[in-house]
Amino acid sequence: MRIVLGVAGGIAAYKAAHVLRSFTEAGHDVRVVPTRAALEFVGRATWEALSGHPVSSEVFDDVPEVAHVRLGREADLVVVAPATADLLARAAHGRADDLLAATLLTATCPVLMAPAMHTEMWQHPATRANVATLRERGVHVLDPDSGRLTGADSGPGRLPEPDAIAAAALALVDPEGKPRTQDLAGRTVVVSAGGTREPLDPVRFLGNRSSGKQGVALARTAQARGARVTLVAANLAVRPPAGVRVVAVETTAELQDAVRGAAADADVVVMAAAVADFRPAEGAAHKIKKQADGSAPPLALVQNPDVLAGLVADPPRTDGRPQVVVGFAAETGDAEGDVLAHGRAKARRKGADLLAVNAVGAGVGFGTEHNAVTLLDSGGEVVGTVEGSKDAVSDALWDAVVRVLPL
């Protein structure tokens, strides 16, 4: 795939070298187009060495190549990291005063911009208006992270991590390099991911093996397809997607409150988190000690609320509009039935619009890069199956959601 990596003039320009390396190591052909200011932070030799291509920032360099037109036309993907307040303003107003701005005007492929600037600049009404304009035109503008900025100040405006930028950018195209459909544009979705933990004492908890990879992939894919995404994250083992709103939780009760709160205006809620069915009846105030006689203290459990069933029975959307609810059922077969049989019973019991049933166990489902899912409707009938990477599963699930999503 042919990628143009634009680099604007901010201190975060050094991180773009890691974004470039992520693309080239994945086998993509990358042309770097820095602004004049960017070359004050990272020199031309670095970009040429890492990309294997000559680098220019000027429209009048190599005129016979007509680079200011050709680069944008031929690219499968354009990524700008960092995108400064100045670059966002020039792009929003259609300026063509350097090679990067001209390339943005001629690009017909997906464009992703990862802003980085001081908090005051990011929050200024002019910058917010420029970002809104770009998004209205179909440009994918990530929200910056919050954290340490240049100097001692902290706040929103930090460039997302390079691997998160690369993942968000590559999610905008399908495996063949074609632009991903924007069938979730204008929609608001909530995705839960990870595994809840129920404290036994100050140092121990009841938990599960979920890494959150499938939920994170679902959030990333929804964002790439145009949705506004909130990720309710329960103890993730992987980094959340760049640019999505993240609400961190630990327990099932916290997850339930966070999901219902975020879903007040959501079109779709996807419960991909592995939620603990039980919690200790009482958590110990101090670390539970070993017994002198070698016995184990009794552990009384109580059942947690059924978050998925509650979303169906009592929809959290406040304006009364329809809301699509999707659940996940991680199952193991037993003497009473196989994985699909348990999934069918759960689909009928929970009543979600869709239920994604997958087998879990040692080396299966949890923590892996691969998944195999059977999609059931609320009556337990099979409406689709998919096996492959968790990104592939995500695309298939969103395809199914779009088919039942009200207009």
UniProtKB/TrEMBL annotation:
Region of interest (Phosphopantothenoylcysteine decarboxylase), residue spans: 1-188
Region Phosphopantothenate--cysteine ligase: start-end pairs: 189-407
One MF annotation (Gene Ontology) recorded for this entry: FMN binding
One annotated GO biological process: coenzyme A biosynthetic process
Occurrences of domain Flavoprotein (ranges): 1-169
UniProtKB keywords: Decarboxylase, Flavoprotein, FMN, Ligase, Lyase, Magnesium, Metal-binding, Multifunctional enzyme
InterPro entries listed in its UniProt record: CoaB-like_sf, CoaBC, DNA/pantothenate-metab_flavo_C, Flavin_trans-like, Flavoprotein
Record carries keyword Protease: no
A single cellular component GO annotation: phosphopantothenoylcysteine decarboxylase complex
SUPFAM superfamilies according to UniProt: CoaB-like (SSF102645), Homo-oligomeric flavin-containing Cys decarboxylases, HFCD (SSF52507)
Residue ranges of every copy of the DNA/pantothenate metabolism flavoprotein C-terminal domain listed in the record: 184-403
EC numbers, comma separated: 4.1.1.36, 6.3.2.5
Pfam families named in the record: DFP, Flavoprotein
Protein residues bound to CTP: D277, K287, P305, D306, V307, L308, F328, K346, K350
This protein's pathway: Cofactor biosynthesis; coenzyme A biosynthesis; CoA from (R)-pantothenate: step 2/5; Cofactor biosynthesis; coenzyme A biosynthesis; CoA from (R)-pantothenate: step 3/5
Cofactor note: Binds 1 FMN per subunit.
Keyword Lyase: yes
Cofactor(s) needed by this chain: Mg(2+); FMN
Catalytic reaction list: N-[(R)-4-phosphopantothenoyl]-L-cysteine + H(+) = (R)-4'-phosphopantetheine + CO2; (R)-4'-phosphopantothenate + L-cysteine + CTP = N-[(R)-4-phosphopantothenoyl]-L-cysteine + CMP + diphosphate + H(+)
Free-text function comment from the UniProt entry: Catalyzes two sequential steps in the biosynthesis of coenzyme A. In the first step cysteine is conjugated to 4'-phosphopantothenate to form 4-phosphopantothenoylcysteine. In the second step the latter compound is decarboxylated to form 4'-phosphopantotheine. Catalyzes two steps in the biosynthesis of coenzyme A. In the first step cysteine is conjugated to 4'-phosphopantothenate to form 4-phosphopantothenoylcysteine, in the latter compound is decarboxylated to form 4'-phosphopantotheine.
Family designation: In the C-terminal section; belongs to the PPC synthetase family.
HAMAP family reported for this sequence: CoaBC
Full protein name: Coenzyme A biosynthesis bifunctional protein CoaBC
